[in-house]
Amino acid sequence: MKTLIVDDERLARKELMSLLEPHKKIDVVGEATDVDDAIEKINELNPDLIFLDIQMPGKSGFDLLESLDHVPRVIFTTAYDEFALKAFEVNALDYLLKPVQPERLEEAIAKLHVESDRNPSPTDAEKRSLGKDDQVFVKDGDKCWFVKLADVRLFESDGNYIKVYFGGNKPMIHKSLNALDERLDDRTFFRASRKHIINLGWVENIDTWFNGGLLVQLKGGEKIEVSRRQAARFKERMSL
């Protein structure tokens, strides 16, 4: 598993590399000292896993994750306050408090192997589009989530932001719907209108609507109008 270590502290990077040596399935292919360096290395190396520090000069580990379309598997390595960690601890693969203890590292890697067996890493070609098995990082205020796209039922445009619907959550991200639409796999996601992209796997009911359009109800309860222009494509996609 190609692995990148992102940490501004040289000694922390070296210590982690030493701790990882006995784990033969972890192949450390690079180190990054800050967010900009990490973005460059991620684009160059396409790692499957990132060991990521949170507090770094300039930009944080959260800033890095927000800048990525496709988020590799992430294990946090941080001295971050335990209470702040509660914002994302149930969503991250794992987090390790510094100084990293060998037994906690083993637990994290064990979780990684279980998760990898369930969801093999996509190939470089598959990473070009975002499909249902990909995960994205969503941050809204103090709350953070790693969200599998299969669990996102709806993207809704709201000015310069997008509201992301998953579970009982509706956080906002700063991105245009057009830019997102270009990255999403059209086998899973459908541009229903100027304001909405829906996950086809979450469609529950379909009714005819005004002017030749359709009204789609999602399993989360949302009702989305499919424009007349898109209705024919939607019927073809859903084999109506």
Helix content range: 25-40%
Question: Order of strands side by side in the largest beta sheet?
Answer: 2-1-3-4-5
Task: Determine the mean pLDDT.
Answer: 89
Overall number of domains: 2
Strand content: 25-35%
| pLDDT < 50 stretches | none
CATH homologous superfamily designation of the largest domain: Response regulator
Top-tier CATH class of the largest domain? Alpha Beta
Radius of gyration (CA) equals 20 Å
General shape: elongated
The name of the CATH topology of the largest domain is Rossmann fold
Which series of helices and strands comes N to C? Answer: EHEHEHEHEHEEEEEHEEEEEH
Number of strands: 15
For the record, the CATH architecture of the largest domain stands as 3-Layer(aba) Sandwich
Protein name: LytR/AlgR family response regulator transcription factor
Keywords: Phosphoprotein
Pfam family, one: Response_reg
Organism: Marinoscillum luteum
